[in-house]
Amino acid sequence: MSAIALAFTSCDDYNFESPDPQSNPQQDILLVENVNKAVSFGGDLNGQATLDLNAFAENADGINVINVSEIEGLPTDQAVDVTMQISLNEDFSDAAEAKVNIKEGKGYVLASEWANIHVTKFSKSPKAKDTYYRFIVSMVKGDQKVRIGDATTFYCSGKTTVTPFPSELVIEESYYLIGTACDWTMTKAIEFSHTGDIYENPIFTLKIDISEAQAIEGWWWKVVPKSTFDTGGWVDGDNTAYGVAENGSELLADHLVARTATVDCGAGCIKTAGQWLITINLEEGTYAFTSAVDFLYTPGQANDWNQGASQKLATTDYANYSGYAVLDPAGFKFSSALDWDHTNYGAGETAGTLSTDPSAGNLSVEAKGLYYCAVDIAGLTYSLTQVTTYGLIGDATPGGWDASTALTPSEDFLIWTGTVKLIAGKEFKFRANDGWDINLGGDLNDLSNGGTNIASPGDGDYLVTLDLSKLPYTATVVKK
């Protein structure tokens, strides 16, 4: 078979090595060597800072992402195959692949395929996102396919800001509780809490207190979006309010019912006093009232399954809890009380998810040790990061802001100590694992994750003790 060559006109030049021959003796061997032909960028990605997929929705060919010039001397039974990788991260850690269809020397990706990748792999948000792309080029003969280069060879990498198709799901930036809590006055409606992108996290939460008197009379509620709240009054229209199917429903969890242009939704009615966390999920269209608890406990093998002997996770919004806990591979759970009679969180159906089913299995870790736990009881998700080192960092420390000065842990990794030379007039913080994902700052008597820098007490050697065994987390800095 004649030798083939690819030459890249708009990209860097590459030298290609012949791959190992295919071993199937019933077929001719496909070789790729001394490549001398052109695969060059063209169309809407060439130098374009933005790309709106909507502009190509009706284009049967799709988006011209790369141009493939004619291959001189290429046998008629061989062809060029191009695959496009798309990612929101420059390192392509979340890369998805799209088939490039070549027609008359031009390579196209269907806008619908790109949009589907964006929604299923990246985000349901209709907002434009920076997107990285690169190409894999192969030669094909029959059922043989040989990649040009190796697994690390990519061509014509670039970046553009992609606007996806409009989302079928419309979520507003904020939602408000209206009803007994604000005397049904729209301008006094209470805003729900929310973190992150509304499409990545469609869950909104609010902690409320219902008194005994309110419970006896019935505590009534509805939810309105920001567009309705901004008008200061009720609006006749689709999705301008959310409530329940039957007015006066006392269900603590059910589907939200949206108002239509002609039919209003019912108002819910709670008749049990207490502290409640209201959770609304705008993607699932659900609501739930759950008891608002100040702490989550971490009973497990590490503490003989005793809530009272476990570490506690704290919260600021009664939905997201975080803190340090000693965990064991033999299992543990998160618990909402100092007994097993309340809500307990075990393993969900997939990794990183939780279940409140009493029969849910235990959670586990690979190795016994200290872990930083982040738990979202509204979204029923959690993450664990093992803490193997803790140290001081800052311009008040020997390593400056570039390197941590290590502390030594106790046997259970809850107390960290060390002698550190500090500089007057400078600052420091505590950080775990020589990284910034987990760090403590602020008041030495009430340290918080991501807190502010701590002022040095002066020049000299100091015995530093960091206590992660109980809340609040504290540290002492004593001059030697």
Structure description:
This protein is mainly beta and 480 residues long. The chain has four domains: 39-163, Immunoglobulin-like (Sandwich), CATH 2.60.40; 175-283, Immunoglobulin-like (Sandwich), CATH 2.60.40.3620; 295-386, Immunoglobulin-like; 390-479, Immunoglobulin-like (Sandwich). Helix content is 5%, strand content 39%. The protein contains three helices and 37 strands. It has helices at residues 111-122, 212-217, 226-231; strands at residues 39-40, 50-52, 63-68, 79-87, 96-103, 106-109, 129-141, 144-147, 155-163, 175-179, 190-191, 203-210, 219-225, 242-243, 253-255, 257-258, 268-270, 274-281, 286-291, 295-297, 312-315, 320-327, 334-335, 344-347, 354-355, 369-376, 381-386, 390-393, 405-406, 408-409, 415-422, 427-432, 439-443, 446-449, 454-455, 460-467, 474-479. Strands 1, 2, 3, 4, 5, 6, 7, 8 and 9 form a nine-stranded mixed beta sheet that branches. A hairpin with a 2-residue loop joins strand 7 and strand 8 (144-147). The protein is globular, with a radius of gyration of 29 Å.
